[in-house]
Design a protein that fits this description.
Largest sheet: 8 strands, parallel, barrel
CATH class of the domain at 13-167: Alpha Beta
Strand order of the largest sheet: 1-2-3-4-5-6-7-9
Helix content: 40-55%
Radius of gyration: 19 Å
Structural class: alpha/beta
CATH superfamily of the domain at 13-167: Luciferase-like domain
Order of helices and strands: EHEHEHEHHEHEHEHHHEHEH
CATH architecture of the domain at 13-167: Alpha-Beta Barrel
Mean pLDDT: 93
CATH topology of the domain at 13-167: TIM Barrel
Number of helices: 12
Low-confidence stretches: none
Distance between the termini: 27 Å
Length: 335
């Protein structure tokens, strides 16, 4: 850790959006909601808007991530837009180079390419995406090198658009693998604290201690995922948070579903063992639920513990207006 203590106003805040599909709704409405949210958070001062790649998930509408990034970038003016992330084992690296080269050409200086190495799906879905399982997470460093080669113009095949463009590549992770690789490559690193809180400090230490400067980045830059459910009162926020708790329970139980409406008594929805599993995934300090003051204190505490360079905030809230209000509350903290 550095000797300089960061203040909350020193770091930018960003948005991680999974385009949640609500129970009783459909992906079309989810994508409209994502567009509306992006336009609002841009006005509220958020730094970047990332969309996540997931497949075969009834509650997530951002599967065609590159397409949605283009739509969001075209619906906003200056905010950075990118992937949080593209699961590189699911794709031919040339295709990703061309897609993001196209995005950067259309929206110069606004596109981020966040990469993950996990398939983000089950075996059947992975096969449907790739038609072969010969390339896996263990091949990620080779894929990354190849992708960088397309942008640098050092591969036999040329990515057009893409070649010669400078697109920030981020590595995403929930363990030490991407922390180590991003340090070795001199790339910015985004850690999934919002669902892997226990590994946050070890991953940050590994990344910072082994960082090698590169042409892209001279010193380490770490962005951390944070779950934030904000409302005007602690009571209202905890009620809204039951949607995310139900979603986490469904995913951990192997039965992914649409985002469920909040419920008054979450204890009626799970066993003691299930509750422990969910609370372990959504434990503080990387999950913050409450009023504006509670959220402010939580983010300040997490910043003091991690000295993060940026927070990227995930808010799985069923009601779109309540979700907007949550981000509005967080945005006001930057003023």
């Amino acid at each position: 850790m550095s000797t300089t203590i960061k203040k909350f106003h020193d770091i930018p805040l960003s948005v991680l959006d999974l385009s949640p599909v609500n129970e009783g709704s459909n992906p079309g409405q989810s994508l409209k909601n994502s567009t509306d949210l992006a336009q609002h958070v841009e006005k509220w001062g958020f730094n970047r808007y990332w969309l996540a790649e997931h497949h075969n998930m009834p509650g997530i509408a951002s599967s065609a991530t590159s397409l949605l990034i283009g739509h969001i970038a075209g619906s906003t003016n200056h905010m950075r837009v990118g992937s949080g992330g593209i699961m590189l084992p699911n794709h031919a690296t040339l295709v990703i180079a061309e897609q993001f080269g196209t995005l950067e050409t259309l929206y110069p200086g606004r596109i981020d390419l966040g990469l993950g190495r996990a398939p983000g799906s089950d075996q059947a879905t992975a096969y449907a995406l790739r038609r072969t399982l010969n390339m896996g997470p263990e091949d990620f460093p080779l894929q990354l090198e190849e992708l960088q080669g397309y942008f640098a113009g050092t591969e036999r095949v040329h990515a057009v658009p893409g070649e010669g463009l400078t697109i920030p590549i981020w590595l995403l992770g929930s363990s030490d693998f991407s922390a180590q690789l991003s340090a070795q490559k001199g790339l910015p690193f985004s850690f999934a604290s919002h669902f892997s809180p226990d590994y946050t400090i070890p991953a940050l230490h590994l990344y910072r201690s082994r960082f090698q400067p590169s042409d892209m980045l001279k010193k380490p830059y770490a962005m951390l995922g944070v779950n934030v459910i904000a409302a005007d009162t602690d009571e209202d926020a905890h009620y809204l948070a039951t949607s995310q708790q139900q979603q986490t329970l469904n995913i951990r139980s192997g039965r992914p579903a649409k985002l469920q409406p909040p419920i008054k008594n979450i204890d009626e929805a799970w066993s003691e063992m299930e509750r422990a599993v969910v609370e372990k995934s959504l434990e503080t300090p990387a999950t913050i639920v409450g009023s504006p003051e509670t959220v402010k204190q939580g983010l300040e505490r997490f910043l003091a513990e991690t000295e993060a360079d940026e927070f990227i905030i995930n808010s799985q809230i069923f009601d779109h207006k309540a979700r907007l209000r949550s981000y509005e509350i967080v945005g006001a903290l930057m003023e």
